[in-house]
Design goal:
2 copies of one chain form a homodimer. By secondary structure, the first copy, chain A, is mostly helical. Chain A is built from 9 helices and no strands. The structure holds a DNA duplex.
DNA sequence: CAGGATGTCTAGCGTTGCTAGGATGTCGTC
DNA sequence: GACGACATCCTAGCAACGCTAGACATCCTG
């Protein structure tokens, strides 16, 4: 339990995070198909096997990036929700923030919500930040409505669909604002 | 221009389709990650290079599968839409049919709407069956409403989100029916 | 200072998508 | 019917992939 050991562990933890951020940067710059273990190793200036001493495999690295993303998304949505919760404006703000997040960090978003994953959603083992992000949607609906979780699921599904279809060029990305307005108009508790 | 030549071309066309259906079956049975050029070649009882005399690469095979799927989806949605178009029931029927299609042919659905593609959506070069499928949604809204295309985009996005999030285990698949009901209630022209 | 644990690298395995080049067979012409 | 031209198909191989075994170096401990 020497001082050296502590330093080692600290360095190891730093390198762990370095791998995660390097994977994320590489993915954001060139897409996930460009993130190979060789390029990643080169980028962190270690050899390939070092990656495997930190993560069980490439999937685990992607998962680590995704989990980092959940925290950022939760924070981003929370910042966007106005303090005075006029319900419809709150929903609009949160939805817009969600689409912003997806558009500005497409690779991160893919790691979180598109790539195959074994992260548990809506489950006891769900990462707390992920649950927190989802709750930002739930909180946009009336607390006394028993179906607000259902509402949140559908709104989230719609936003996710808009995000991925737009990102993959399947719907024109310049109509996103209009679609957002329409979605919120239809889903907010206070119609009109 | 001999008879033999005609037979050759006929055989070639058959083999072309054989490759497509083999790829699709393999994907439906074991997922797209199991569809390798070697396994596909083995399945059609030819060597690998034969695939490349029909398609420019693996992506082109996936695209061909997807395009087949567009036709089937359009037909499936059209069958589902009732002749007497009570608007809300029509929308409900088409939406349910869409989700059915996605759940029952998940690999085909992925080829069409998830995997990277260069198929043109909402464009002059859009495959007609794809446009026809989209129009089944558009037709669920009042013809005099200039924004019905927008409505259709958002409904489609929501359904797509529900389909992929459920398929990848990110929302529980047994809530799909409830979500569908809620979606249609909020989006149909005739509220209530 | 020796011995064992820890950390890191080189080298290589099996698989992937894809392609070059040779063998085989079929066709139109003399 | 024999022959050159052509089309068809396969064997063999390339580079890149995720991942791992085993050798080397380095450091802490007794």
């Amino acid at each position: 339990m020497s001082v050296t050991r502590e330093r080692r562990e600290r360095e190891r933890a730093q390198r762990h995070q370095l791998i995660i951020t390097a994977a994320r940067e590489l993915a954001e710059a060139e897409g996930w198909e460009a993130v190979t273990t060789r390029r990643l190793a080169e980028r962190v200036e270690y050899s390939q096997p070092v990656l495997y001493s930190h993560f069980s495999g490439k999937d685990a690295i992607v998962r680590a990036v995704a989990i980092d993303g959940f925290g950022e998304l939760a924070a981003h949505l929370h910042r966007a929700r106005p303090a005075d919760p006029e319900p419809r404006q709150a929903l609009h703000a949160v939805c817009r923030a969600y689409l912003e997040f997806a558009t500005e960090r497409p690779a991160l978003y893919q790691a979180m919500f598109v790539l195959p994953t074994d992260v548990k959603f809506a489950h006891a083992e769900t990462p707390p930040p992920l649950r927190a992000a989802f709750d930002e949607f739930v909180s946009c609906f009336r607390p006394d409505d028993a179906r607000r979780e259902l509402f949140a699921e559908v709104v989230w599904s719609a936003l996710h669909g808009m995000a991925v279809l737009s990102d993959s060029g399947r719907i024109p990305s310049d109509g996103q604002e209009e679609r957002l307005d329409f979605l919120v108009a239809r889903f907010s508790d206070t119609p009109g």
